[in-house]
Amino acid sequence: MSDAARLARLRFSSKPSGMSYSHFNLSTMHRDEIRGELASAAAESAFAAAATYVEAVGGIKSGTISWSIVRLYYACYYCIKTMAIRNGAVPFNSGKEEMLYNARDNTFLRGGSSSHHWNWNAMRKVPALKALWFYSEDSETAYTELRTHREDVNYKHAFPDPEFHNCLSSHTNDLDKRIREYRDDTTFFYTYLGDHLALAYPTKMVFHLEQEMTGQGATLDGDKKAHLKSIWKMKGYCPFTG
Q1: What is the pLDDT of residues 163-213, one digit of tens each?
Q2: Cis peptide before 16 (omega within 30 of 0)
Q3: Is residue 228, in this structure, part of any structural domain at all?
Q4: Structural domain tally of the chain?
């Protein structure tokens, strides 16, 4: 849990009993306290997104498909979390339920049913998130499908290694080429297709997150970039190392 999430949880715990969370607002001091932690929380989450994606791609290359499916899912989870934090929305667990604190307008929203089941409607109520494709209905559908793949691995052992499951099949087994195509797919042609989604959707998310952050002058620390480069198994550009 980031310091921003810890502070949001701490301040939310002071909500008077019986008061609706929709009517509870923080003082300017407490709000600014949380806002001061957003940059570091976003950087931490962005690195987690990049690292899990890089590890997943390496796993596919070496044939550990089941493990890679789980990592690809988590890469998307961290991308969605990072973009929310960068736009002032802090996911946190209150101790009883998942919540979302919008630091830009000082409001609390109900989060998902668990940390892995986002409340997409609540996110789309945050003005800064509403226009981002990360939180579109198409993205929600793709994320839900990828989460199902991840649950198939964890609970049903559905992907026998090293065979490619149909969610990772495509017209070519050239992994370097596929990643380039998914990354550069400006029309989102592959992103939501069932037989490409498991790799195309996380690839699009990770590289798009990097693009968004770079455009706002944000980058990872040099040691984190060096780590990503050291575990990148592909020929092309490693995300978040520019």
Answers
A1: 555 656 554 568 888 899 999 999 999 999 888 899 999 999 999 999 999
A2: no
A3: no
A4: 1
